[in-house]
Specification:
By secondary structure, this protein is of the alpha+beta class. It contains 2 helices and 6 strands. A two-stranded antiparallel ribbon has the order 1-2.
């Protein structure tokens, strides 16, 4: 069993709810509860940057890239892939980024 909570740049899994039928749904649904990431996604952050007229600095981009590579390397070294990596699945915390762990075993 892989413990993703071992890595500071991977969102913590809290709970999985299977076969729940909300009032507004037509059929059963599954939900994944994860750690709250107060900074929103990378998409949100980039939109805020664009709206404010500020550009991402080389330092900020380097930090984001290094933390993303660290999280993905952690998973890949354990034969786990992401398969839906995009800015909307990269979340920001106060001092680091976290990858949404819709991860799947490559085997």
């Amino acid at each position: 069993k892989i413990l993703f909570s071992e890595h500071k740049n991977i969102v913590r899994f809290i709970s999985f709810i299977d076969r729940h039928i909300p009032d507004w749904a037509l059929s059963s649904m599954c939900f994944i509860a994860m750690e709250h990431c107060a900074g929103g996604s990378l998409v949100d952050w980039l939109e805020k940057m664009k709206t404010s007229g500020r550009r991402t600095t080389v330092s900020e981009a380097s930090i984001i890239a290094a933390q993303l590579i660290s999280a993905l390397s952690f998973c890949h070294n354990r034969d786990v892939g992401h398969f839906d990596l995009k800015p909307g699945n990269i979340f920001l915390m106060a001092d680091n980024i976290e990858v949404n762990k819709f991860l799947f075993d490559k085997n």
